[in-house]
Amino acid sequence: MSDPSIAIVLHEALYITARLAAPPLLASLATGLIISVLQSITQINEPSLIFLPKVVAVAGAVMMLGGYSVTILTEFSHNIFSAMVHVG
């Protein structure tokens, strides 16, 4: 593999990482924001109150997008292994 093709593969890997990490992170961000607003409205200052809703939101996002994630990773792995065959 030449240097430009390695850069393209690395760019694609980082792009796929961002695409797969974004939904759980956004779910966690939205849940944290909603719970923080509710805590400030009700003046409940319990720091451990936020963890369970975040865990549930992230688990739900991962479960809902699990098939999508596996499809993208399988396609990327297939492309990488086929590129390795062409090199060797």
UniProtKB/TrEMBL annotation:
Membrane topology qualifier: Multi-pass membrane protein
Broad class of where this protein is predominantly found: membrane
Gene Ontology annotations of biological process type: protein secretion
Keyword Metal-binding: no
Pfam families the record matches: Bac_export_3
Localization per record: Cell membrane
Transmembrane segments: 20-38, 50-70
Source species, domain of life: Bacteria
UniProt keyword annotations, A-Z: Cell membrane, Cell projection, Cilium, Flagellum, Membrane, Transmembrane, Transmembrane helix
PANTHER family (UniProt xref): FLAGELLAR BIOSYNTHETIC PROTEIN FLIQ
Family: Belongs to the FliQ/MopD/SpaQ family.
Protein name: Flagellar biosynthetic protein FliQ
Source organism per UniProt: Acidiphilium rubrum
